């Protein structure tokens, strides 16, 4: 074999090694980036990987990332602040191009955001945010105060100007929880006849909703509304109310409109939830991340669409209206 042939064999072998190494990468594979475009890697840290709401959101994120030719590197938190902090630090070490984070704690993740900024990695928040917007390249979400006010006004419309309300407020320290709780209290404060009889904090699980609602029903047998900060809490609360034989007396409200919650509203068990269309939300967030990376994004809040789902409109809603 002459030297030219040997050189060609070596070159081909080296190319095969490079291709195999790229194929074996642990990140989720994306479609090839268009010619001339950089293929970005985005670090993803959602609050939960098992909550149906975040599962739908992650599905939308991954679908849009594949469409845009973006690799996703995911770390798992499961509502554990320490675990999320460690995961974000791993993403910084991995030198991802940007991060998409749903911060569990308004304060607990602040240092992580600072570290990412110091490393030149832009952070986009989704679903939840931190208290310092200067550390966020953008927030894809809602005006949490207005969302809480919508629920507060719905409660007044349903029970009138007198009644008892219990609050299963969600994770203590989460910015969305703080703002939504504040807004509901502000709305109800205009009606002296409405009393908040409980304000309880926990992570977003069905088990916590069941347990806390049972406690509420024992301590306040005449409660009229149990407000829940998300659907998992609300589904647990519905079980407690149903077991107590009080579905015709106690209204349970949710937030997120996951399929089980929508079914519960349709069955007349849960009184209300709010649709946030998490899959579409995830897709929108990836578009924002791409715009941030390319220097084309302006502003802070990218607001998603939301709407009340209750007995007034449930009959006319289709599955695609909620995705």
Spans of at least 5 consecutive residues whose pLDDT stays below 50 are 1-36
CATH H-level homologous superfamily name of the largest domain? Response regulator
Class by alpha and beta content: alpha/beta
Helix content: 40-55%
Number of helices: 10
CA(first)-CA(last) distance: 62 Å
CATH architecture of the largest domain: 3-Layer(aba) Sandwich
Q: Tell me the Rg in angstroms.
A: 23 Å
Question: How are the strands ordered across the major sheet?
Answer: 2-1-3-4-5-11
Beta-strand residue fraction? 15-25%
Number of domains: 2
Question: CATH topology of the largest domain, anyone?
Answer: Rossmann fold
Global morphology? elongated
* CATH C-level name of the largest domain: Alpha Beta
Q: What's the rounded overall pLDDT mean? A: 88
Question: The biggest beta sheet, please?
Answer: 6 strands, parallel
Walkthrough of the structure:
The chain starts with a helix and ends in a 13-residue tail after the last strand. By secondary structure, the protein is of the alpha/beta class. It is 44% helix and 18% strand. The relative contact order is 0.12. Helix 6 (175-188) links the parallel strand 6 (162-170) and strand 7. It is built from 10 helices and 12 strands. The chain folds into 2 domains: 33-142 and 278-304, Response regulator (Rossmann fold), CATH 3.40.50.2300; 144-275, Response regulator (Rossmann fold, 3-Layer(aba) Sandwich). Helix 2 packs across helix 10 (278-293), helix 5 (144-159) packs parallel to helix 6 (175-188) and helix 7 (206-219) crosses helix 8 (231-243).
């Amino acid at each position: 074999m002459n030297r030219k042939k040997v050189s060609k064999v070596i070159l081909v072998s080296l190319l095969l090694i490079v291709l195999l190494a790229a194929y074996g990468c642990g990140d989720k594979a994306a479609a090839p980036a268009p010619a001339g475009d950089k293929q970005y890697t985005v670090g993803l840290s959602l609050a939960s990987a098992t909550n149906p709401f975040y599962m739908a959101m992650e599905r939308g994120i991954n679908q849009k990332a594949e469409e845009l030719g973006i690799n996703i590197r995911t770390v798992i938190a499961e509502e554990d602040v320490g675990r999320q902090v460690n995961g974000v630090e791993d993403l910084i070490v991995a030198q991802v191009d940007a991060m998409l984070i749903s911060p569990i704690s308004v304060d607990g993740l602040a240092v992580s955001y600072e570290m990412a900024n110091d490393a030149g990695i832009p952070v986009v928040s989704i679903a939840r945010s931190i208290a310092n917007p200067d550390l966020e390249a953008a927030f894809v979400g809602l005006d949490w105060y207005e969302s809480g006010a919508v629920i507060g006004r719905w409660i007044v419309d349903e029970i009138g100007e007198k009644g008892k309300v219990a609050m299963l407020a969600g994770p203590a320290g989460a910015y969305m929880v703080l703002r939504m709780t504040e807004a509901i209290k502000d709305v109800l404060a205009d009606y002296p006849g409405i009393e908040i009889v409980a304000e309880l904090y926990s992570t977003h699980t069905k088990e916590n909703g069941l347990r806390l609602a049972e406690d509420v029903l024992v301590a306040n047998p005449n409660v009229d509304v149990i407000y829940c900060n998300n659907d998992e809490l609300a589904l647990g609360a519905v079980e407690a109310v149903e077991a107590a034989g009080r579905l015709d007396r106690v209204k349970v409200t949710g937030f997120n409109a996951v399929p089980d919650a929508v079914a519960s509203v349709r069955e007349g068990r849960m009184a209300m939830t709010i649709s946030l269309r998490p899959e579409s939300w995830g897709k929108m967030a990836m578009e924002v991340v791409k715009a941030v990376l390319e220097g084309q994004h302006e502003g802070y809040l990218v607001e998603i669409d939301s709407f009340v789902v209750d007995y007034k409109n449930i009959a006319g809603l289709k599955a695609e209206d909620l995705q």
